[in-house]
Design a protein that fits this description.
Layout (H helix, E strand, L loop, with lengths): L4 E4 L5 H11 L5 E4 L3 H7 L13 H8 L4 E4 L2 H7 L2 E4 L19 H13 L4 E5 L7 H10 L6 E5 L9 H6 L4 E4 L4 H15 L7 E4 L1 H32 L3 H9 L20 H14 L3 H28 L8 E5 L14 H11 L3 E5 L4 H7 L6 E3 L3 H4 L5 E4 L11 H7 L5 E4 L6 H7 L2 E4 L3
Bound molecules: uridine-5'-diphosphate-xylopyranose and adenosine-5'-diphosphate.
Amino acid sequence: MNKNIVCIGAGYIGGPTMAVIAKMNPDRKVLVVDINKDRISAWNSPDYALPIYEPGLVDVVKEVRGKNLFFSTDIKGAVKECDIVFVGVNTPTKMFGRGAGRASDLQYWEATARDIKEYADGDKIVIEKSTLPVRTAAAMDAILNTHAKYRFTVLSNPEFLAEGTAIKDLLEPDRVLIGGPQDDVGIAAINEAVDIYASWVPRDRILTTNVWSAELTKLAANAFLAQRVSSINAIAGLCEATGADVDEVARVIGADRRIGPKFLKAGPGFGGSCFKKDVLNLVYLCETFGLHTAAEYWIGVIKMNEHQQERIVSRLFREMFNTLANKKIALFGFAFKADTGDTRETPAGKVARLLADEHVRLVITDPKALVNARRDLADLDGVSYIEDEYKAVESADAVVVMTDWRHYPALDWRRIYGAMRKPALVFDTRNCLDAAALRKIGFKVLNIGK
Ligand code: UDX
Ligand code: ADP
């Protein structure tokens, strides 16, 4: 009989992943539990006002919630009922004590391990989904299996889904990775985990490794992606200085099949919950093992990213006659990328703060992220949050496009121009608008890397 599954942590990873697992495994019961009552109520809301926005997620939840997918706060009951326990609790960067600013804060994760041990009434397969530093599976194993009545086999199944495309990434993954102990019990557990995914993922895309390779792969994969973004952004500055065009350069670099075209888009820098955290984790690991040159190398990726946001504000400053005080600037987009309401580590946050330091009158507009923006910038005075772009630009001096929302190119830019103070500036940090058309209207246009 197929075993029941519980996921502890109903967040960005746990919610969508379990919804898809439930959809594709109709004969398994899938429970998602969380300590946060509000979050669980939102997952259970009758009108499907889910706690996170992901294209396609509502449809999947409508299909399976109440059939074989259940959300609750009863962690104890769920652990008892299920033989396979996914752990998807948050592991933010630690902001205190040893490893502050680098290592992951593992308190939620450790509390979860202790809960599993306390509530278990039989052997369990425990599968890490949270991004964790390498070798934490060993720590999980030690917590669970010391003086334990039951056997806990710990696997690592890192998540590669990107926000905004989570459902598609889950349904059609490039690969699923499952790491586990290489003994008989471990291999049997790996096979159980493989079975969950094999109900829809072709077998040759389900890769298995030892636990540590799986954990390190997650950090390394994200670090490689982040490094590509920082590399193209480093070239963008040079393009601006020399008259080259970064989009042209990226197109030609990406035509080399060894490099490939993806993740070469210059912009305001990477955001999101993973890239910075994972690179910092890698740095921490390198330092822990005395690999200082490697640590410096990866720190460079983060420094480059932060520099990109500083460069945006410096360019605005120069282009707006070296004074920004009292000028009205509308940020178009606050989410760290399109199709999500998530603002964790968003470059727009840093730019907003740098502009606030210059006493800019800020207006933030975003179709999905205004609630988060308001929370993130709560300590700043004089910021307005306006959903309607046309209202947001009334007598503004500049528009700074921070997120590549798909509807931005289709806005009525003539109307926007008409509403703004002149000279009206658009700084398109995503290079997603038609610059020539904007110039024709009368805008002064800035782009990244040109
Ligand atoms: C990322 C990884 O893609 C995913 O595999 C992992 O599981 C979690 O971290 P995510 O953070 O959701 O996913 O978004 P992603 O699409 O990777 O974008 C990250 C950031 O890089 C965004 O701020 C995006 O705007 C930026 N980016 C991406 C660029 O600036 N240029 C690019 O070419 C690509
Ligand atoms: P991620 O992006 O990794 O999914 P989120 O912050 O979106 O991170 O979600 C993590 C979830 O884990 C949160 O809803 C949080 O309430 C939950 N959580 C944290 N600690 C525990 C715990 N000890 N038991 C159950 N749930 C927890």
